[in-house]
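Reopening: Thiosulfate oxidation carrier complex protein SoxZ still failing for me.
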Amino acid sequence: MGDPMRIRAAESNGTVDVKILMKHDMESGQRKDASGKLIPAWFISTVSVKAQGKEVFAANFGSAISKDPFLNFKYKGSKGDKLVVSWVDTKGDKRSDEATVS
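Support: Ran it again with your exact input. Result attached.
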């Protein structure tokens, strides 16, 4: 499991702006280590964001996403909404963090 995500969510005129910074090394499987061996691919493969239990964002990532991915999206919501952000990586590791819309 990675480090906690940094989640910021603010509502303005019925639209919630969500910003998420995920900590993950995101190896593509194309780099080599010091001895010349390929470093195995290891990256976040799925991301899901739920607000008040309803999915408002979903994504499938591939090996081309950079280290420590940053997401920014908007949805129709309100202050006080409980957000749950979850991801799963290619090794089966999982992370889930929560935030409240301000």
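Residues 7 and 20 are 5 Å apart (CA to CA). If you still see a failure, please send the error message rather than a screenshot.
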